[in-house]
């Protein structure tokens, strides 16, 4: 399966937002997290992010079909790059698409250090990032009684201590 990242613009906001709501609605229902879950984000907030000079959204295409998106926060040389969020629509999951998208985004943006966070209680998500080389930083953040975020970092091999 061919996976490509297509640079998004503000004109893609509604499409990305609709996919994001669909992709994260299951976790939203499970954890009732209105603070950090992307399904709770408004279209207006999506547009604001697309207009940020340090934000890069890409639509994830698998075999030329839009199946998700990834947002990269890249504030330039010397700063860590951040993935927040990456998602694939439910019917396209478990096909290796998200992993290919993350690796492609890392190639596009380069850099020595990448960061992200995910849900500690979702073992499959934690395993997914760990298989891509991300390591837990030791930092966690309790969002509510059901949900804790766990933070990850990935360093280039020659930058690891």
Poorly predicted sequence stretches spanning 5 or more consecutive residues: none
Helix content: 25-40%
The CATH class of one domain, by name, is Alpha Beta
**What is the fourth-level CATH superfamily of one domain?**
Gcn5-related N-acetyltransferase (GNAT)
Q: Which fold name is given in CATH as the topology of one domain?
A: Aminopeptidase
What percent of residues are in strands?
25-35%
Give the helix tally: 4
Sheet with the most strands: spatial strand order: 1-2-3-4-5-7-6
Number of strands: 7
Give the CA-based shape: globular
Question: Whole-number radius of gyration?
Answer: 15 Å
| Main sheet overview | 7 strands, mixed
The CATH architecture of one domain can be given as 3-Layer(aba) Sandwich
Q: What structural class do you assign from the helix and strand content?
A: alpha+beta
Pattern of helices and strands: EHHEEEHEHEE
Termini distance? 36 Å
User: Taking all residues together, what is the mean pLDDT?
Assistant: 95
Question: Could you characterize the architecture of this molecule?
Answer:
This protein has helices spanning 13-31, 43-51, 97-109, 123-131; strands at residues 3-7, 55-62, 65-73, 81-88, 113-119, 135-142, 148-155. The chain has 161 residues and is an alpha+beta fold. It has a domain at 3-114: Aminopeptidase (3-Layer(aba) Sandwich), CATH 3.40.630. A 7-stranded mixed β-sheet has the order 1-2-3-4-5-7-6, with helices on both faces. Strand 3 (65-73) and strand 4 (81-88) form a beta hairpin. It starts with a strand and ends in a 6-residue tail after the last strand.
């Amino acid at each position: 399966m061919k996976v490509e990242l297509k640079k998004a613009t503000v004109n893609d906001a509604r499409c990305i937002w609709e996919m994001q709501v669909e992709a994260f609605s299951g976790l939203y229902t499970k954890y009732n997290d209105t603070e950090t879950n992307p399904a709770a984000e408004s279209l207006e907030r999506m547009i604001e992010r697309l207009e940020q000079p340090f934000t890069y959204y890409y639509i994830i295409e698998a075999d030329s079909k839009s199946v998700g998106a990834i947002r990269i926060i890249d504030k330039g040389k010397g700063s860590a790059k951040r993935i927040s969020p990456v998602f694939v629509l439910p019917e396209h999951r478990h096909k290796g698409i998200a992993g290919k998208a993350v690796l492609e985004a890392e190639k596009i943006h380069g850099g020595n250090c990448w960061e992200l966070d995910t849900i500690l209680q979702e073992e499959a998500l934690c395993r997914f990032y760990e298989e891509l080389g991300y390591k837990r930083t030791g930092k966690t953040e309790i969002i509510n009684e059901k949900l804790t975020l766990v933070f990850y970092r990935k360093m280039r091999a020659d930058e690891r201590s």
